[in-house]
Amino acid sequence: MRAKSPEAKLLNPGPRVQHRRRLPPPSAPPLAQIRRRRAGPCRIWPPRPHPTPPQGSRAPARRISRGSRRPPAASKAPGRRRSLRSRRSPGSRLPPDSVRPPPSCRVHEPEVIRDKAAMHAWSRRRRVEGKVVALVPTMGFLHEGHLSLVSAAVAASAGPVAVVVSIYVNPSQFAPTEDLATYPSDFASDLRKLAATGVVAAVFCPPDLYVRGSADRPSAAGVSGGAVSCLEDAGGHAHETWVQVEQLEKGLCGSSRPVFFRGVATVVAKLFNIVEPDVAVFGKKDYQQWCLICRMVRDLDFAIQIVGSEIVREADGLAMSSRNVNLSEEDREKALSISRSLVDARTAALSGSNHSQHIKDQIVQTLAEAGGQVDYVEIVEQERLVPVERIDRPCVICVAAWFGKVRLIDNIEIQSTSSDKYNSVVCLSAES
Length: 432
Known about the structure:
It is a single chain. The protein starts with 5 loop residues before the first helix and ends in a 7-residue tail after the last strand. The chain is α/β, with parallel strands linked by helices and 432 residues long. The chain is 30% helix and 15% strand. It has helices at residues 6-11, 31-38, 116-128, 144-155, 187-197, 220-224, 230-233, 253-256, 260-275, 287-299, 329-350, 356-370, and strands at residues 111-113, 132-138, 161-167, 200-204, 279-283, 305-309, 373-381, 395-403, 406-416, 422-425. It has twelve helices and ten strands. The chain folds into two domains: 111-309, Rossmann fold, CATH 3.40.50; 322-425, Pantoate-beta-alanine ligase, C-terminal domain (Pantoate--beta-alanine Ligase, Chain: A,domain 2). Residues 82-101, 219-225 and 417-432 have low confidence and may be disordered.
């Protein structure tokens, strides 16, 4: 055959070759469907029909070797549970609401803060967010009485509240002969209880709030013959600034515990400076302590609202206290005489027998017959805590007694409108 010249090839190049892209057969699904089916129960081509998965779910991915044949999806072993991933919505990392616990069962884990500077910064951030910072100071080993303080902190403001619970066993309020070493503690249980409330935003549990010094340095209190706390006895002589409410700390518990209220006022002032709360909640278990804190806030111009919360009691009437765990079964039964004697005293006052000495004698007799060792029984004014001869004004009956190795204190408030008509509010309490 005669070959074409170059000019002829340009004029008649011949049949044009068309390069087509190879297309899948008409019955083949798009590539996206093939990829989705790789996670389904069948990867054989052509695919066998299988049940359509529920809307918003994805079948679990399974590896299949080449050439293997899988039985239909309906032949899966009965009773096999799907994984949590198969119940999740596409693109979601949480299970749908149908498998999540109801809101009432969810717990809010509070943030645990141990550093003073971090606690200070946390409170300021909450205040920038427009929240009221409420502080509930405790020494741990929480019970329902402490949790009632948390509820009172939430109710203290109509707006959003950020509740902080401090857990710190304060050594400066214990004398070396008292029960600092045996004070009960269970931090893990405390966190679980606070998380279950769902309202506690932070837990402040510093390792120490005091500056420690050399153990061989004598303290000023020891040199002058004054009282020494466990803080100074353990080498805390570097701390030398104390807060004292001079008049209110005298008498009642201050007579037998000379370092107690000095330590309480100092540690509460330190917590106020660190946390900077708008509201602070204290129980009336220790009535003298509550009055002392109110007076300190007034005199030192702390811009803090102090809320007093009533006592929460056991079913048998015993006031809830962290120290109740140290009572033996026999001593616990005997300790119920405190609440019974105070209720009888209130009844006597309401019936007209309002002479203070007579009522005190009746309480002492009741406690002694039950086997208690009386520390004091006093009837004092509610605000100034000075003794009264007759219950003709707002007053409080305060009792402290030992049962075994545990010291308990109770009190009952009596609000009077006149000398012959009383409106009493019971506030039986025990030392926490």
